Amino acid sequence: PGARSETVFGELESEVRSYCRNWPVVFDTARGSRLTDVDGRSYLDFFAGAGALNYGHNPPALKKPLIDYLTRDGVTHGLDMYTTAKGEFLETFRDLVLEPRNLDYRIQFPGPTGANAVESALKLARKVTGREAMINFTNAFHGMTLGALSVTGNSMKRGGAGVPLVHATPMPFDNYFDGTVPDFLWFERLLQDQGSSLNEPAGVIVETVQGEGGINPARIEWLQGLAELCKKHGMLLIVDDVQMGVGRTGPFFSFEIAGIEPDIVTVSKSISGYGLPMALVLIKPEIDQWSPGEHNGTFRGHNPAFVTATAALREFWSDDALERSTLAKGEHVDEAFTRIATDNAEAGITVKGRGLARGLQFEQPEQAAKVCAAAFERGLLMETSGPLSEVMKVLPPLTVSDDELDEGLTVIAESVRTVVK
Ligand code: PMP
By its UniProt entry, which InterPro entries does this protein fall under (predicted)? Predict the structure, then answer.
């Protein structure tokens, strides 16, 4: 019975484990927007694999093709050999994602996780431009490998890992100065300052909505200004869509809202649709300057993930129904959160977000974790984010039903009330 009790994990697993500390139960099965623990208790999941489960747990439209593929002994591991599963994914991605949006990208499979995609994007930007420095943003999060950590603007996430490998200069993210300093003034001055060592950065890496940084949406005009600035200074624009892509903010890519076309895009988390490891780097054709084998890795191209990713695109991205429902559900959450902020005015709550990436920021940072703990007691899973963990973060599956969404929002309202009163 070891695997059914918590103690075995405490004895055998590294202290680095984290989420289980907030949710000290052993989960066993999951379907749609719910998980079930070994005691049969059900939890509504507004965490959704930190954005890796945009279509919920075990979505039936993906499960059947996966089972069929395994049943016929489809290739599972094939490094980056040509396989039917990969070919179908590439064509489906072109037909359902790129062409309808008039986007032209070549697709790289950099390895299984978001951090692999970020590493690859940083390396390519440096190779293509022949420059080394990178610009990142305050509060950014890009992953746990050393290159990705170097462009992560949160010293807590760096832990004891030490000196950044990549020379990265953090610039103020949108709204950093609450509108008191004109957009990009600081940025432009440093770029022109011969003494700042910033004169010729290779590129800029940005999230359109910072996820781990506390659900901070950049304004459309700020994103457009950033794209222009990149053009003007010959810097490549890398949009990290690992968390906000695949429909989290409504459209497939989070940058579509600004009408910009990044030079490089990183995608992971929900792209396989089934919680299977998969990542993409999208590269403008003219800068696809990789030589064969220059960025390799054993798990580039996980064929069962290609199968579920293809099924997910066909099921959810053949029309704009998911985008429209995500935007409507997002508005609904925003209204409910605004009511919570008004009803608990003494807590100084700020409502944040875009699409179905939403957050409540608390003036007293510790209240966010307390609300998450109170919600867990009521059977709702959520995590905190932000530099002080001051934001209660909500990322439900995009497929959450209206009733489940309301159930979760009621739990959040009750939990906030118990914590702030
Ligand atoms: N970029 C962003 C924006 C992320 O949110 C994350 C993960 N939270 C990553 C990169 C890293 O992805 P992974 O954990 O799959 O390496």
Answer: Aminotrans_3, Aminotrans_3_PPA_site, Dat, Ectoine_EctB, PyrdxlP-dep_Trfase, PyrdxlP-dep_Trfase_major, PyrdxlP-dep_Trfase_small
